[in-house]
Amino acid sequence: CGVCYAACEVVAWNPDYLGPAALNRAWTLVNDVRDGAGRARLAAVAGDAGCHACHTHESCSERCPKHLAPTASIAGLKRATALAALRGEL
Asked: Residue 21 sits in a domain of what CATH number?
């Protein structure tokens, strides 16, 4: 719906930031065993405008009308991209 995107402080000063909705969706797909593009998705969210740009203010999660937790998804992406980088996969 975009409430999380509108609530995100990072979006306000970094227009290239992917935003919490897109990163939440990426996390869902990375964890879907039917999706074969997990490594490519991690590479896409690992850049400067991706998951590591999140400052974890949790405004997105606090204001989500569906009570989703984009901040938790972004934290998962941060861990997954860091592990992939350590393994030399990114």
From this structure: 1.10.1060.10
